Fold these 4 entries.
Entry 1:
Amino acid sequence: MSPRVLLVNDDGPPGPQSPYIYGLYRHLTTNLRWDVKVVVPSSQKSWVGKAFHIKEITKGRYYYPKEPDGMGEVSSASRPLNEGEVAEWVLLDGTPATCTNIALHNLYPGTIDLVVSGPNLGRNSSAAFAMSSGTIGAAMSSALSQIRSVAISYGTVLHPTPNELFEPADILSGRIIQYLWNNWGKDVGGLRNGEIDMYNVNVPMIMELLKLEGIDVHWTHMWRNSYGQLFKAVSAPDATSTTGDVPTKGPDVAGQHPAQPGGDVSKDEPATLVFKFSPDIQPLITPSFGSLPVGSDGWAIAKGHASITPLRACFAHVDHDPAATGTESLRILKL
């Protein structure tokens, strides 16, 4: 039986900052013939993790994508489809996790079997990216509502990514999602009937996708890595803007561009507590291959392979002491 799907993302509606969502939507609905609802942020929301809006009022509008690229009209009220429009989507002025929760519990309560989050513009392999990812955050929001979820990310390798790679990536992603839906794994600690909470999938956008045999797909674990400085101080003339030059694309693209010249706080200028997001994370995107743990998601994408990583919707604990699995008395810490 085909699942009823909610499609979310963190890149927003179709456009230069969100080039992949419409293609995957068309593949799921046209080729797989799945029933798909779409609720996405009204603007780009990368790097926000699983944050929710709790004080802001979340407002929404309706969106009507058209062929061939999904660009469409926005309306404050629901209306019948006009000629050339393929569906009615919902845009919310909220985070990706907010979109998921509102869709599951307010817009389509009790009618969604599977949440697909993505495809993200850029990889979400490794802990450093995953812990910051709005794409994974939206899927995690679904898992915490006990709904199956799959996060999909298209890793940027070629600049710019050739358009002819879009469709084969969608086809491969559709095959992976369909396989996972029909063969969902077990986890004794899972939130939902002993099932795995969610999966994180990464597909590298490389020319090998065009080959008849395609690319290999690996079961992986997450590469545990870290990052350093993500923000730079800006001088007083730049402090008039509170937004700064925030990267509008995924981690692959943001990481290609180190901090922009100019605007750094000089020792001769008065100190100001003003900073802007300016990551220099090239080592996370192009690490030495020997530093990557074999079988990790980072290792797979470096080899030009897709990865599937089963995840739990939690900050996993560490059994640092063998006694931690024993009786209650053994678990008491004696100082």
Note: The two ends are 56 Å apart (CA to CA).
Entry 2:
Amino acid sequence: MTPNSVTYVISGASRGLGLALCRHILTVSPDAFIFAGVRNVNSEEIQALAREHDGRMSLFKLDLLDHVGVKKAAEELAKHPAAARGIDVLVNNAAATVGSRDDVLAENALEALSSDVQVNLIGTAAVTLAFLPLLRAGARKTIWTITTRTATISDALNSHAFAASYTASKTGLSMWTVKLSRAVAPEGFTVLALSPGWFKSNMGGPQAQRSSKDAAKDTYNVLSTKTVADHATFWDYTGEKLSW
């Protein structure tokens, strides 16, 4: 680590966009150090990436439904030498859905809504609050939250009634992110949200034209250029500024 090192915490890092972001950041930013939060620390791909970048990456167990465990994970991570000066960037990437395209009227509609809110809204909030002390100690004080433009009300009014539980949970996350941004603005934070678009993944399916590698590159290229002047803004992966 050098005085110019940027330290990241990335949730949901074992697959999809999270894994691709880890790989991209380690490739393009030689001074970066990544704490990769994963539900399964024995995941083969993330283990292989950690071995490939030995000394620049540390894995830790992170389950967004285990709020006590999330807090303990942050406390343990704070003891790591790479976190001696806090962390610079928290990437809230982890997400899940048990719903379907027509889940707003499905028999399990309430179960799906509750499950998605627990992970995508409450779980993300738990991670953010747990890591706030380390962010406050860091130089950049930056939070990147991965969401979707389909969770905006204006988009919903002009689209089909699909993925209701997932998009509703992400709409709630947008509101919570805005409220958080207002609360931490006096401390010099940069809180940003981004929609990475449709890409091949467990959630996006195989029909998408873009790969997770493409999505990671686009996400990083947009968000890494932002400064405190862009605090509390929402972006598309193309660089378009979106309305919340």
Note: The chain has a mean pLDDT of 93.
Entry 3:
Amino acid sequence: MPPFLLVFVLSCVIFGVITSGFSKRMMPPFLLVFVLSCVIFGVISVYMTSYSGVNAPLITSCKSSENLTLEKWIEPPRNLMHNMTDEQLFWRASFEPHVKKYPYKRVPKVAFMFLTKGPLPLAPLWERFFNGHEEHYSIYIHSSPLFQLNFPSSSVFYKRQIPSQVSEWGEMNICDAERRLLGVALLDIANERFVLLSESCIPLHNFTFIYNYLTGSKHSFMGSIDDRGPQGRGRYSINMLPEVDISHWRKGTQWFEVQRKLAILIVKDDKYYPKFLKFCKPPCFGDEHYFPTMLSIEAGQVLANRSLTWADWSRGGAHPATFGGSDINEEFLKKIQRASTCEYNNNRASVCYLFARKFSNSTLEALNPSVLGF
């Protein structure tokens, strides 16, 4: 019997003994009712306790350590290796608060999402880039499911690999991998901006500059061009109707940056994705058309219609040029940093690129602090 019931019954017995000196005629009615209530409550309590098999008190403290707290809701997952399906992950990641104001001091973070085939050969450069800014970023890596990254516990990349599946260039499963990265990154409510990078990408500016550029922007950075040629509208299928009309068809580079609201739009999409999965096959490439088309329809007003990642396509071909150590010098990097003019928050700007690709592992030594500035 739980202690509080034992105390209650004993109290009733003692009270009954005290009042036993009264004869039935002398006992006040309220005492008679009280004694009978004690007996009835005791019998019922003993019966219910033995029936339910509960040995703990029926009334628990409101200060139980199991109570939900705000900290538990906003704490990011400590282990990125989950067992959810994509459907379950996207459902969970699509949760968003409807109250605009956060009830705590929220420091927005930038989620750096690396889509790789295998290792990260430029990891030492990124380690230098992230150093000292731990509260303002998070890292996620989607690699081949057969490849296991092995970083020491002191590394910023330690245990930042997420569950992955096969992804192939030109196929919609590349978009699946990108959605998977966004899904896991959205589980951290502090993540406000989301950047997609490859293993051959480098930062062109220091962390503080890039962080301020992203968090201060009114727009998300994704190319969304209405290309009326064979490499644009020529890839459109009439089977996309009625969800996507040819006038809505857009093209853009794979390497994007989006704010949290758009990231949620991407992971929760079940309207456009089935159409692209079924009807966008080579020479239609999902990674060039799916996100640019879907977001231009759903949130075109917040797209800057440009990428933040520079690449050299001047040599022609299906892939941009790859740079080696002999290509790297301060003049070369400054040329990239000031490669063009653009708009930033509706004003003309000279800094249009924050990242660049493709850089081989032979560039690592040449990309030193004296050249990059960090």
Note: The first helix runs from residue 3 to 19.
Entry 4:
Amino acid sequence: MAAAAASITASLEHLRIRGGDDAVGDDSDARSTARNAEEEARGKSASGDSRSACSVARGPPSSPPPSSSRPVPPPPPSILCDAWYGFPRQRRPRRERINAVARQVSNFLDWRASCNIGTCRPGCRVSLIGDEGDVGAVSHRMKELRNQGQLRQSTDSCDAAMDFESNVSIHEFLDRQQTASMGDVVYLSPDASIALSTDVPPPRTVIIGMLIDRRITEDRSRIRAETTLKLRAAKLPLGELNIKELISKEPLNVDTVMELMQRWWWNCDRLESQKEAIGDELQPNAYRTCFLEAAAWAMKTQRDRHPNRTIHMSNN
């Protein structure tokens, strides 16, 4: 892991010093860039009293552009945490699984809350779907973690940031959310035969299996996606990072995957808003840079949060 950590740090430094439109910096730089782009874009298109809470007053309102020229905003991205694999029934293994799922999802929400202090960036919606007993147990444990002061977010913030859906199937939930296209839904699996493309923004709805075990069973998430749910399975394009110890088949921690996806969505949304603001063409590899930055920072967070992370072992 030491060599991988050094490679991740080198990747961040490489991205930071490249300069130009594709350059990336730390989180504070990204938040500042996002705010400036949002203010410029909204300053050009805002009119009358229709300004949002994130807008900045810029004198007399200008005439609104024709409605046909206004881009339709994409639906907010969504992460579905699939707990339908079921949790162990034995007391100790069950308690360990509940605590692990609650901790990893809470880690992500806590990280996102700390990143969004003083900003207006909308976060993806997170939903935990599964058996009533399992979902209720995770919700209860997440509240306990906050009440014990182990995480920064309050219980109310947690509830506002998540949906806890009991006894609802994945397809029922997608239908209820009126997902625009099933082609924009992907089930993340390290065993999938294809990787997500870095030439375009990622799908807006991502499903992550709550398989948090030291010992993994290969193909379990891929089979559930493709055979049971009839959904597209894809793996993260981790090979793009060119880190020797990291391949696209490596199962990452759930909180790391969630952070990577949130950063990737934020970066692509920022890129699109900058394009609208300046009316310019995107630079070559701009979307790829969005992924590289997101992955490098998410992997750095994983290294800092889980310095002693064990290497996953396979049952096969």
Note: The radius of gyration is 20 Å.
